[in-house]
Amino acid sequence: MLRRVNFYSICIAFGLSVLLILAGSRYTDNTYYRPSPESHRIIEINIPQQTPTNPDDSSLNIATIMEKTRYKIKIELENYNFTVSSVKKLEDLIMESGGQPLRSIIISTWRSGTTFLGEVLNSVPGNYYHYEPLLNYEIIQIRGSPYSDKALETITKMLKCDYNGMDEYFEYGKTHLHQFSHNTRLWDHCKYRKELCLDANFTSKFCKLFPFQSMKIVRVRLHLIQQLLENKELNIKVVLLIRDPRGVMQSRQHRNFCQPSPDCWKPELLCADMISDYVAASRLIKLYPDRIIVQRYEELALDPNSTVPSLLKFLGISPTTSVEEFLLSHTNVEVSGVSSTFRVSREVPFKWRNVLNYNFVEDIQLVCKEALDLWGYKLVHNATHMISKDFNPLANYTLMQ
């Protein structure tokens, strides 16, 4: 009898252990796990940027895809406060219905936080994300001729959902699918049928279904964007995203795409562009005070729960639970990867202080002093000062009056 009781006890204990393991795995799976604000974990797996939202659409015709998308947008925005966007109903923001979408552009440079901010805006339901429309220009900065006219034409056509005649864009995309994959609503269909992303007719029609359009650009300087601001049909709003050049250069180190191009690896060119953007921002904000805003990356990263709602308000977008969930899941854990947007955000802005050699920082400061002063970044005086806990690189700044 004693042996039988022990055997049954062992079986029960084993069963309970299995249940506990299964229950535990449910809450450690990425589908269920939601990090608390205090969590700080380094995750060494490659979590996808966005969870696919559509089932396999490989057998659906284009008309069915369009109809499904219309229905999905309508459901996702069923409780959206359209008065925040200065309209009465969804159709007022949809080109297909004769409306005009809310269009926003992020202007910055490589490794300045545009991927994160772009994904924040893409977490808004009903957003169509024009990711890096000028990828085919490779690693250059467009400051004027000979590239500016064609680049601005491309940007304008895309914001109007007109992909006709954009042969270079589609040709580049054939071998660089990341040109499309960041646009998650489009990629939900193209990942099964790549030819859809290369079809100007489909992408033009599909784009016109969405009430919000966002775009991030890291190859065009701000003064050129005035042409877009003057286009009343576009009615765009612009976010100039600025980052401390020491942080930018630290983030660009060991990036294979950067080193061959002087526009990417020379701090003097980076800071000359920052000065140019400062002058342009001062002028354009006077001309279009409700259409352009400046956001320093450091403030965005340190306090996203305050800065993001403020940016959304400026852009005329009502806060949504999807944005809140994105911030919660992307600012409290770190996932390895050059373009990962999962970061313990409060630790990112000043990482350069602990990883850069002081001599390199001194070299940057030598050619960037004016840019640092204009944008409110304090100088480092020596190696000890650089890593001191009492040193806060941020200071106030004002645009030219």
Could you explain the architecture of this structure?
- With 401 residues, the chain is α/β, with parallel strands linked by helices.
- The protein contains 18 helices and seven strands.
- The strands form two sheets. A five-stranded parallel beta sheet has the order 3-4-2-5-6, sandwiched between helices.
- Helix 12 packs parallel to helix 17.
- The longest helix has 27 residues.
- The N and C termini lie far apart (93 Å).
Put the structure in a nutshell.
45% of the residues lie in helices and 9% in strands. It is α/β, with parallel strands linked by helices.
Keywords:
single chain, about 400 residues, two-stranded parallel ribbon, alpha/beta
Provide the structure class: alpha/beta
Task: Tally the beta strands.
Answer: 7
Choose one word for the global shape.
Answer: globular
Number of helices: 18
| Poorly predicted sequence stretches spanning 5 or more consecutive residues | 1-53, 338-344
Strand order of the largest sheet: 3-4-2-5-6
The helix fraction, in percent, is 40-55%
Strand proportion, as a percent range, falls in 5-15%
Biggest sheet descriptor = 5 strands, parallel
Q: Averaged pLDDT, please? A: 86
Order of helices and strands: HEHEHEHHHHHEHEHHHEHHHEHHH
Q: How big is the Rg?
A: 24 Å
Q: In whole angstroms, how far apart are the ends?
A: 93 Å
